[in-house]
Design brief:
6-stranded parallel β-sheet; alpha/beta; 12% strand; TIM Barrel; 10 strands
């Protein structure tokens, strides 16, 4: 009888102790178990295409602005943006060692003010084709005309900038690095470095004209030389051809990474029938300038709304 009582007591104590240990260390055990891996970005490979030509047809339509003689624009500003980040999503990684925001970042609150100013002042955003005709002196445009461009194809362009542009009925050119576009849609993480997915592009192609910023040459050598200057003409041609195959723009246009280029890069563009290319030279644009050296004015995080007004005169 004593033996049975002892065994029963031992079993009860052992069971209670076991469940107490399990409860105490359950979180550690769960964390130690293998978890499902986060989805990895699936890039577009050479020969693959986004198939967005049909939703980009609007960009080839030339509007008749009915501008009277003497009232047309003589010069216009082309704005250059990279990233638009919500103010609340700014982190330490967005600051330089000197404690300033990286020059490629513009706060969403400032971007909203800038776009609202353009709307309030009655500015018209031009398409790439309308800009081309203006430079060729073949089309009259309103004095308050402007071109908005984005480089690199950051996902925040879709999440943060696109709704603001659409609200004001503005359009913009978006120069994407084709190898960074993902086939699968990745969860948006505010402030982190992410790029357009195929779905993002298809959902925003009513506002953005998508063009090439290389397929995979948006890099520098160890010595700091831009790949577009370091690589030979054949390598540049192959890369740009691949980027065009992925994007399939209505009329191919290009933006030089870092604004850097040389004679070989320009010749590669000509051989691929890319008739327009954008730099980051800080000045306005007028008729009869070089179509392969179109200047743009970068917008910086330090720009106040007064700075912005001066930038577009």
């Amino acid at each position: 009888m004593k033996r049975i009582t002892f065994n029963l007591g031992f079993t009860i104590i052992f069971t209670l102790t076991f469940f107490l240990l399990i409860n105490t260390f359950s979180n550690v055990l769960v964390q130690a178990l293998p978890t499902e891996e986060a989805p990895k970005p699936k890039p577009f490979l050479p020969g693959e295409s986004l198939h967005i030509s049909s939703c980009q047809k609007w960009s080839s339509h030339i509007r008749d602005f009915k501008v009277k003689d003497g009232e047309e624009a003589k010069q216009i500003t082309i704005l250059l943006y990279h990233r638009i980040i919500d103010d609340s999503a700014i982190k330490d990684i967005h600051y330089t060692k000197e404690g300033e925001l990286y020059p490629t970042i513009v706060l969403k609150s400032e971007f909203k003010k800038q776009m609202q100013y353009l709307k309030d002042q009655g500015y018209t955003t031009l398409t790439n084709e309308e800009l081309k005709l203006f430079i060729q002196n073949r089309h009259k445009i309103p004095k308050k005309s402007i071109v908005i461009t984005f480089d690199d194809g950051f996902k925040d362009n879709y999440e943060e900038a696109y709704p603001i542009l659409k609200k004001h009925e503005f359009t913009a050119l978006n120069f994407v690095i084709a190898s960074y576009i993902t086939k699968n849609t990745m969860e948006y993480k505010e402030g982190e470095v992410q790029y357009f997915s195929a779905s993002d592009i298809k959902n925003s192609c009513d506002v953005f004209e998508f063009q090439s910023h290389t397929y995979n040459l948006h890099k520098r050598t160890k010595e700091g030389v831009a790949f577009l200057v370091d690589r030979d003409q054949q390598q540049i041609k192959e890369d740009l051809k691949t980027s065009i195959e992925v994007i399939r723009p209505v009329r191919p246009t290009f933006a030089y990474p870092y604004g850097e280029y040389d004679k070989e890069a320009r010749n590669a563009l000509k051989q691929l029938n890319i008739g327009m290319a954008f730099t980051s030279e800080f000045k306005d644009t007028g008729p009869n300038i070089s179509m392969l050296e179109i200047p743009r004015k970068p917008v910086y995080p330090t720009d106040t709304i007064e700075d912005f007004k001066k930038k577009i005169k």
